[in-house]
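From the pipeline queue, job 12 of 40. The input is one protein chain; the requested action is below.

Action: predict structure.
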Amino acid sequence: MANAITWVEIPVKDFERAKKFYETILKTKIQPIPTPRGKWGSFPFEMGEVNGGAAIVEGKGYEPSTKGSLVYLSGGQDLSKPLSRVEEAGGKIILPKTENGGFGFIALFTDTEGNKIGFHSQK
């Protein structure tokens, strides 16, 4: 097994607010996808890839949280750039850019929905 993760769903209370937040900090577009489970929006991914996708999801049973599993999103080449947009977009930085013991850099923030999310980058 090359990658244990198939995809990650980030729970949200207000789909449009969360969509705007993630599009702003990541400078990307989230693609709404119809699903019977609620509102679902996919982060960009490579067609044909079966692993590594992420989405925001609003629906029954999806509760934002700062506890439990921690998702790290790609911070690109340098996570300082997307991290610099977090607070202006309505989130809060809870751990600034920090060296991660030879494994690049990490940072933590809360999104507009109340989730604790991380960024990772090599620089």
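Job complete. The radius of gyration is 14 Å.
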